[in-house]
Amino acid sequence: MNRQAEWVARAVGGQMIGPDVTVTGPVVTDSREATAGSLYVARRGENADGHDFIASARDNGAVAALVEREIPQAGLTQIVTPESTEALGVLAHAHLEDLRQAGPLDVIAVTGSAGKTTTKDLLAALMATDGPTVAPKLSFNNEVGLPLTVLKADEHTRHLVLEMGASGPGHLRMLTGIAAPDVAIELMVGTAHLGGFGSREATASAKAELIKGMKPDGTAVLNADDDYVAAMAQRAPGRIIGFTTRTQYPQFTDTWIRAESITIDADERAAFDLITPEGRAHVHLTLVGAHHVHNALAAAAGAYACGVDTQTIAQVLTASGPSSPHRMDIETVTLDEGRTIILIDDAYNANPDSMRAALTALKHLGAQRNARTVAVLGAMLELGEQSEALHRDVAQMALDAGVSHIFTWSADAQPLASHAQAKTDSGTEVTYSEDWNETLGELTSAVRDGDIVLVKGSYGSHAWQIAATLMESGCSR
């Protein structure tokens, strides 16, 4: 970012206290991430007040701070606004609109109940072939992460790829108010965040906010294989591109991106022929799991909408692996006593749809390698009243996948353990623990040489810490 503090104050309608310094560094909400020239945004959180860390931000190089109250003797320029998080979004919107007026810049936004981050990562790689591209790190897809990503764009940025998440109605409306997409990609309507939505119908209505919030002359990219998404075509204000793996599909658009001749190799990686109005090109994904075909098609459709040619799309998709951590990453891990396991690390987040996809991949990989499979399943959070039933469903998915051992922990996952334990005729062993540390110990004692181990759960379940510990320490105990 390269803005005068006075410009920032004007953009957010705030009062500037101190000299009109130049913000030349990144905008940050964590004082530890401040560098020379930064603008620090002091937010009030549940456990901490960012205003208490202004001195730390200043010492790390911040020259200005966006605050909700003046901090005496802060030693840097302050811009006072009623609410810092809201002001951050307003600032990002003003910054983006200024860049749009100055030169060619398109915004490509992705939403969906599952697959957002993988699709975002693929899109970032695709758009980078066409010009300077900015995309979020990890899953920066909420009212804080999205504006921070927008504020990384500058006058040289040609493409801004954004992931937009929602855990309730109105969330996508707020995010598109910050950055209205030129290309809006809808992946799927599933059962994530049911605690905030209540039903799949309500989820679909909320996800459609992305389409309603896009630029009037923009392009909607819709998954024709999801009926809820296909129905959003009637809300699209302009051009529509559909993507599908089917040979017959609803005729809501004349522009199609398709996958034909899909095959799955011994490492559970999909290959297919990518079909666009331009022609055909072969793709062989390095991503693990057949479900990534739809993610790849969505990314291909978004890139095609922005003018990337079919051959380039196929080449980039074939070369791109997982760039965000804990997402279907496969590694060989050597344990003590000479045991070696194949670890499938998909532990960044989880919902019933992504659990089904991961367990399907585990089943197929185990069959291909004639290996025993183990499922380490953390709780799925934010599912509301349906949480118990959906955890029981996941237990049944794991049993149907024929896993030899299920490990789970915490009160939220108790229904999963109980359902699996009740199926004594399944032949699947079930280990339930109080916390993830205990599960890690149980797991490392029980796994056998050659096992394929899937680790998956919502971020708050700490499943990612099990995967990370296995990766970092080799699990030696």
UniProtKB/TrEMBL annotation:
The keyword Ligase applies. Residues 110-301 form the Mur ligase central domain. Residues 28-93 form the Mur ligase N-terminal catalytic domain. It catalyses: D-alanyl-D-alanine + UDP-N-acetyl-alpha-D-muramoyl-L-alanyl-gamma-D-glutamyl-meso-2,6-diaminopimelate + ATP = UDP-N-acetyl-alpha-D-muramoyl-L-alanyl-gamma-D-glutamyl-meso-2,6-diaminopimeloyl-D-alanyl-D-alanine + ADP + phosphate + H(+). GO terms for molecular function: ligase activity. Residues 339-458 form the Mur ligase C-terminal domain. ATP binds at G112, S113, A114, G115, K116, T117, T118. It comes from the Bacteria. Involved in cell wall formation. Catalyzes the final step in the synthesis of UDP-N-acetylmuramoyl-pentapeptide, the precursor of murein. This is UDP-N-acetylmuramoyl-tripeptide--D-alanyl-D-alanine ligase. The gene is murF.
